[in-house]
Design a protein that fits this description.
alpha/beta, Collagenase (Catalytic Domain), 2 domains, 5-stranded mixed β-sheet, two-stranded parallel ribbon, 8 helices, globular
Amino acid sequence: MFKRSLVYVLLVISFAFNSCKKEDVAQADYQSLGTAAHNILSAFPYSGLHIEIQYMVGYPPDSASIDNLVNFLKKYINKPDGIQVTQQEIAASGKPVLSIDDIVSIEKKNRTVFSQNNTLAVHILITDGDYDKANILATSYWNTSFCVFGKTVNEDSGSWGFTSLTQLLTTLFEHEFGHLMGLVNQGSPMQTNHIDPANGAHCINPHCLMYYDVEKSTSGGNLFSVPTLDAECEADLKANGGK
């Protein structure tokens, strides 16, 4: 009886320790969107970047989209130790529609890479369900986290008259990373006023990567090339520690 009780106590202590440990290492993450902008852009205190992509069954990102994202980041962020990308398939959500609370819960259950030591971590979740807000292809929600709605993206790409999956995924990856890097006026202060007053945290320039319509299925699927950051967005990033 004593031995059995002792084993049970040790298991409870071990579980509690591991749970606390995961929350402890996540203290630099799970923060308000935009608060990691300078840390993403600059070489200090994080000299490296580790991107963890977790995708649900049937929705893996293509390698070209990932390569495009890495090349985009190399243009704007100072990470002398380089950029690492890892991928993992995770279980299906079991839900046709996902709320932000669902997304947060899924990330907390599955995320394994966190910002610590000299490496900043970013988590990208690709889901098998739609967002509970209509016509949204992707959304950023924490300082080092964003979600792409894989089912919606697949439905809005690849067919005649629509952009390719690679172009749409690349656009969404880069747009949401733009938000993590503090655009627009969300962690990286504006050098000139270019925020869209009707769609906050987006650029007023309709040709810029950070234009609000980019992440909507009503427009994003009709892109025939990946938009780029305009000069004003680039100036904001450079002023906040970027290249």
